[in-house]
Amino acid sequence: MKFEIKNRDAAGRICKFSTKNGIITTPTLLPVINPNKIILSPKEMKKLFGVEMVITNSYIIKNDEKLRDKALEKGVHGLLDFNGPIMTDSGTFQSYVYGNVNVDPLEIVEFQRNIGSDIGTILDIFGTPDQTRSQAKNGVIETIKRAKQSMNIKGDMILACTIQGSIYPDLREFCASKLSEINTDFFPIGGVVPLMENQRYQELIRCILASKRGSNYSKPIHLFGAGHPIIFPLAVALGCDFFDSSAYIKYANDNRLIFPDCTLKLDDLDELPCPCPICSKYTAKELKKEKKNDRILQIVKHNLYVSFSEIKKIRTAIINGNLWELVERRANSNPHIIDAMRELRTKNNKKWLEQFEIISKNKALFYTGNQTIHRPLIYRLQKRLNERFKFLSNKYILLPDSEKPYSKYYINEILKIYSSKKNVNIIIKSPFGPVPIELDEMYPFAQSIFPKKLDSHTNYIVKRNFKNFLDEKNEIPFKIENTVIEQPENYDKIFQYLDIRKIYSIADMQFGKNAFNALFDGEIKIVKSKKTGKIRNIYCNDKHILSMRAGDGLFTLKIDGAKKLHEFFKTPILRVIINKDAVPFIINGKSVFAKFVINCDNNLRPNDECIIVDEKDNFLGTGRCLLNKIEMLSFNFGMAVKVREHIK
Ligand code: GUN
Ligand code: ZN
After folding, report:
1. Which of 147, 185, 504, 507 could form a disulfide with 161 if both were Cys (CB 3.0 to 4.6 A apart)?
2. Model pTM?
3. CATH number of domain containing 367
4. Nearest residue by C-alpha to atom 11 in ligand 1
């Protein structure tokens, strides 16, 4: 099994997943195929909606003589007439629905192997939400036992070992970590159908987060039984890779149409408010009049169009770096999800999510409502401000939010303040909270769009951020005058001073406290863009230390800068430490692959600049991280660091 990250946003990811029967892209949706009643064939689904993989049920196949014989003879791919990857489930869900079913846990795994399933599933114990802790725990222990036994007989089939644990996060995490220990390759999160059916999304989020925490980060996560697209964006943002849908057919049988944020009854519709080919071809009246089977088939198609369109939207959002926006928009369409989103405001969950958050994006941060202020990126910035920003003194002047970049808009005020008292901090009252003027071009302070008037919850959080940041410091009153002041004598000096302060503050925010002092221990030369006037390259004693990126106002670390940080910070700070076998590759200009990483700084984030060293902390080069620590250490495939400069 090969699972490799290609793109990412939030804790979500676009991956390539390899099976015996082809490579597919995740996140994706597996339509559930009932082998007894194929309404729309997998082949047709592939043609119409780009379906790459389907899921069917081995318990149903095994218990029907005709299906069983055909599957054993022609394989499950022959049975379904589909040559792409096929996942099979085991009968656990049937035992949940019908009570006990007659199936042996090892026999059913063996059967899935024998019919050539690409991904088989263990016969896990379905942990219902109404279970007591001890009932749930017994189920988890039995599930782990069955997983262990099943791993021995799976052959070359990928084996999905379901994470159970009812609504108890510690049991979920325990189950996931035990399954990781036995090298499980595929992790469904099970027992969540009743939560979704009853819109208990907050508990669902808790289950997902706990399962993710315990599981191996380099393996796919499947949210078992999640077929309504309303939950897809949030589940993907929390790290789910697979969904399966029987909803498309269940709803169709019930004359109901799926939409990204709701389900509507055909009987209640005078129009079909959807751009899919079915809804374009039919009027609501015509569809209602269709014969039952034809009508069901058309609704099935509509439901799958909508579901796959949502998957495509999510993938696009990951590539564009605005998955949180999509999550918030979808959440705002359903009160139960709004409630559930509160779960993401807890400190523990923000801390966990922050690890996956990319350093900067090429898209502005876009406000969608009162959940935006709780984004992991904003949490990170406030935390870093509190931990890393060096004040000039305990005095500050507050300036209101304005057009951006702030230092351009407030050029007169800056000149006025710095020409008389240089040691006063200038702080902007931004919608994020405090933004020191020095950081005004750093992502996302300059690259963000908020409404002019904030909602009261955001205001409350922003006030709290101010209080934390400016605690025990004194505000100096300052009056903004709308007259242009005369250019002071020391005009150039003031701007040089502001430039140095910018470099100082951004370096510390990006690389850690005192990074500036480590990087610049001699004469500093700043080269600016002739066109934009922005800082471009920074030298110290004629050595090129940093370049500033115009897009996000952050630094690219040059090799001489990396050497200075390497000298100053002790290992493992800013380091990615690689196996000696990989050293020759780096020296020859190749990237660092995840399987060669033996340790790294816990504070490195995707897209962070890093220092590459060997096991003895010998300096090898510098580059850009693609993964965070837990990912670098768990993935065996794909790139971990894109090397930019290296020793010869
Ligand atoms: N389908 C929906 N939920 C589950 C589950 O918990 N386990 C299995 N095996 N299949 C499911
Ligand atoms: Zn439609």
Report:
1. 147
2. 0.97
3. 3.90.1020.10
4. 93
Q: Give how many domains the chain has, as a whole number.
A: 3
Domain ranges, residue 583: 570-646
Output the domain CATH number for residue 603.
2.30.130.10
Per-residue pLDDT, averaged over 450-469, amounts to 96
Q: Which of 193, 208, 240 to probe ligand 1 with, by most ligand atoms within 8 A of CB?
A: 193
Q: Which one of the ligands is nearest to 271 CA?
A: 2
Q: Secondary structure of 297-341 in the HEC alphabet?
A: HHHHHHHHHHHHHHHHHHHHHHHHCCHHHHHHHHHCCCHHHHHHH
Residue 443, judged by CB atoms within 10 A of its CB (0-12, 13-18, 19+), counts as buried
Question: Which of 446, 445, 447, 427 has its CA nearest to residue 437?
Answer: 427
Quick one: which atom of ligand 1 is closest to the CA of 90? 9
Q: State how far the Cα of 3 lies from the Cα of 478, in Å rounded to an integer.
A: 57
The ligand 1 site (C-beta within 6 Å) comprises 89-90, 92-93, 121, 124, 126, 162, 190-191, 193, 224-225
275 plus 389 within the same structural domain: no
Average pLDDT over residues 144-155: 98
Chain segment 223-258, per-residue pLDDT in tens: 999 989 999 999 999 999 999 989 999 999 999 999
Place of tokens 């430039």: 499
Secondary-structure percent of the chain, ordered helix, strand, coil, rounded to 5: 45, 20, 35
